[in-house]
Amino acid sequence: MDTITHDREIVKQVICEYAQLRPSHGEIRLDTVFDEKQEHYALMQVGWDRGRRVRGNLIYIVLREGKVVIEYDGMEAGITQDLMEKGIPENRIILGFLEESNAGWAMI
Fold this sequence. Notes:
The chain is α+β, with helices and mostly antiparallel strands. The protein has 2 helices and 5 strands; from the N terminus they run H-E-E-E-E-H-E. The protein has helices at residues 3-19, 80-85, and strands at 27-35, 40-49, 52-64, 67-73, 93-95. Strand 4, helix 2 and strand 5 (93-95) form a beta-alpha-beta unit. The radius of gyration is 14 Å and the shape is elongated. The protein starts with a helix and ends in a 13-residue tail after the last strand. It comes from Limnospira platensis NIES-46.
């Protein structure tokens, strides 16, 4: 299996595992969004909690130039360790939401 296919399957697997979790309150569903053409992967939350609308990203990952770029990680423990435990090397994971991890990283 080539690197991009390997990374794609791991990212999708980790996001699907998080999608099985249920929020502790409110009527909130977790939706996976997988765009394999552009290599964008997300976990969205949508619903209602205490009379207020809840919506937005919980996880947003982009596969680019042989790297797994975590653009947003709203999970309590973070997903980096999950990705590494499933086989993505730490040196190919970029924390896109931290400025210092982007040193020298060309944005496309």
